[in-house]
Amino acid sequence: MPCSPKKGPGGIDCEAGGISAGLSEKTLRLLLEAMEITADGIGIFDPDDRLIFSNSANAALFGLTPQQAQGKTFEELVRHCYREHVGINIETDDIEQWLAMAHQKRRRHRYRSFQTDMLDGRWVQLTEQLTEGGEMFTFFTDITEQKRIERKLERLTAKLSTQANTDDLTGINNRRNFLRLAQQEVSRCRRAGRDCALLVIDVDFFKLVNDEYGHQVGDCVLCNITAALSKELREYDVLGRLGGEEFAALIPENGTVQALEVAERLRKAVVSIDHGEVCDGLRPTISVGLAVSEGAGIALDWLISRADQALYRAKNAGRNCCVLWSDAGN
């Protein structure tokens, strides 16, 4: 790259006593050429935040050539990007507010490094380094591939997390995740002195569905029942499949009366499901066992055990009903 004895690319002073002190003219030219051909951005701002040197990659950060960018202030460069919709992705409807926030961070520390995205889809890692004299050296590296890999790993992690916490068939919490979330809600209600109800739900005579219609139809029935249960519960209630045809629902901040109302609503919702032609008119029902903490210091294991006992009574009572556990009745 041509470089006069006095001025190099971007206007850098190449005279002896400047940055070329101790360097041969050939070495200086090679150094300037390297800065120009690198894919990394290199820029220098003076103490007034005016760009006094920029290689091509750095100027492209603002949608300009080095000749166009040189001499412009940081604010002028940003306004150009915003006005022409080029370079850095400036997501704002108020450029004045954006610039005010940028100035609050810019030149506040000797060293700063951050990531930003470009309108062309690239991501870059930007680094700012202040000198004792107030000049600022800026560098950026393209990290688009790194971001692509990070996002791929994030999607994979989210997928694995979902698989680890979700029942494959019904899409609700599996047993492990239900117990984890239910424990959190029980602890929260206990700290707040609030009631908490646990419902254990079993599909009546489900083995007959599998035996008569096959497991594929049985799976369809379970999914339909799950959808009906989910529709009747609040967003912050915790629903899970414990295994097979058994489900559980943790209903925080509900006492005995409300819990019985919820259980009965769930029972009626399942009875009213239209399973279509897959079951040829079959209407599976559920039995529900309930236990309520009533604000006491009761553990999740206690609720599960008592709700299971109540479920056993519901089945003995003929199924398709809801039974509440109580000291007197169990």
UniProtKB/TrEMBL annotation:
Residue ranges annotated for the PAS domain, each copy included: 24-78
Coiled coil: none
Alphabetized InterPro entries for the sequence: Diguanylate_Cyclase (IPR050469), GGDEF_dom (IPR000160), Nucleotide_cyclase (IPR029787), PAS (IPR000014), PAS-like_dom_sf (IPR035965), Rev_trsase/Diguanyl_cyclase (IPR043128)
Keywords linked to the UniProt accession: Nucleotidyltransferase, Transferase
Enzyme nomenclature, EC number: 2.7.7.65
Top-level lineage group: Bacteria
Heme is among the record's keywords: no
SMART domains listed in its UniProt record: GGDEF, PAS
Listed SUPFAM superfamilies: Nucleotide cyclase, PYP-like sensor domain (PAS domain)
UniProt GO molecular function: diguanylate cyclase activity
Domain GGDEF: 194-327
Catalytic activity: 2 GTP = 3',3'-c-di-GMP + 2 diphosphate
PROSITE patterns: GGDEF (PS50887), PAS (PS50112)
NCBIfam families (alphabetical): GGDEF, sensory_box
Alphabetized PANTHER family for the sequence: DIGUANYLATE CYCLASE DGCM-RELATED (PTHR45138:SF9), REGULATORY COMPONENTS OF SENSORY TRANSDUCTION SYSTEM (PTHR45138)
Protein name: diguanylate cyclase
Native source species: Marinobacter metalliresistant
